[in-house]
Amino acid sequence: MTKNLKKYVLFGILSLVTFLGLLLKTTSLVHAEDVKFSVTPIYPSNQIDSAAGYYKLKVTPGMEEQVQLAIQNTDNKKIRLKITPNAAITNDNGNIDYSNSTKKPDKTLQYPLNKLFSGAQTITVDANSKKIVSFTLKAPQETFSGQILGGFYVTQLDKQTNTPLQKDKAVGITNQISYVTGIQLTSSDTMPAPELKLNQVQAGLRNGHTALLANLQNVKANTIGEVKIKTEVRRADQKKVLFKSSNSDMSIAPNSNFNYSIGLQDQAIQAGKYHLDMTVDSNKGKWHFSKDFTITAKDAKYYNGKAVGQTNPNWLLYSLIALLILIIIGLIILLFRRRNKDNSTNN
Q1: In Å, what is the CA distance from 184 to each residue of 48, 61, 152?
Q2: What CATH number does the domain containing 43 carry?
Q3: pLDDT tens digits, residue range 48-75?
């Protein structure tokens, strides 16, 4: 009987560990073996660097040309793909992103790349075969300084629904099987001096958690890389630092903006007047911003009500964990009582 109880205790512990592991699993990667196709740029004659690995094209005003890419299907069955020329944006993680075709362009972006190329194409590539796809590029009518940045975003589609194919949908993860080939257009050797601006600072949420969002804007047609940001937030007219953050290895697309987030460690947002100090260091220069901002009681109430850490404790999860712990404790107590009873009998 004692051996059986030991087995039950061990089973209970293993069950608890497994249960917690499944609940805490929130991320997953689409591994290379899941991507059954490759994309290779076919460079036109105006490619600047043949070793670049992406399109780096020097264009002249009003020129029109065909830009091609080769799609290789390495799977044993045919696949369906959607190829979309997108303008580069900066996502809220502080990275240049070519996957978004719906975000409103920054108002300083004069020539969105997707407006210069012909529209998205949906193609079918037979098993273990290659297909050449062509897009029409129409350059701006005038010479421009700096760079126009974007890329071909290639997404595999579900054959039944014709929507982006996703992995690990069973656990709520929506990783799309996709591929990006970058595009950079220039028409002169003139590169504008970088200029970064801090716009509004406001309360908000980041991944469901309370945060302050500082909108940074790159107003020039010049990529800013190797970005490091440090921030400190205080109450207005006070020296005590309430919140601070530090991030590095970021990059900002030309003529784009993004919301840099300062986490509040799941503390409730408090209405009031605040002051932010921010230092941005990069491979193109260094900027320091100092800005007063106000959080209204209305905004504080709204975002606190939406925050995961503030109003949505997972009582079901806590209850199940507590129940499993109680079962294990009960089994352990029963094991000891049985052992003591056996010892008394032997004596």
Answers
A1: 10, 15, 11
A2: 2.60.40.10
A3: 999 999 999 999 999 999 999 999 999 9
CA distance to 12, 124, 193, 329, per residue, from 9 (Å): 5, 55, 67, 9
**Which of 280, 284, 281 is CA-nearest to residue 221?**
284
Of 280, 303, 282, give the one whose Cα is nearest residue 291: 280
Same-domain status, 78 and 181:
yes
Q: How far apart are CA 157 and CA 164, in angstroms?
A: 4
Residue 249 lies in a domain: yes
Q: Any bridge partners for residue 231, and if so which?
A: 245, 278
pLDDT in tens, 96-134: 999 988 889 999 999 999 999 999 999 999 999 999 999
Q: Residue 225: give the domain boundaries.
A: 196-305
Q: Measured between alpha carbons, how far is 211 from 312 in angstroms, rounded to an integer?
A: 16
154 and 204 belong to one structural domain? no
- Please state the rounded mean pLDDT for residues 238-258: 97
Report whether pLDDT(346) > 80.
no
Among 137, 254, 134, 272, smallest CA distance to 203 is for 272
Q: Rounded to 5, what percent of the chain is helix, strand, coil?
A: 25, 40, 35
- What gap in Å lies between CA 235 and CA 293, rounded to an integer? 10
Say which range, 18-22, 83-87, 290-294, has the weakest mean pLDDT: 18-22
Is 82 strand, coil or helix?
strand
Domain count, the chain: 2
Domain membership flag for residue 270: yes
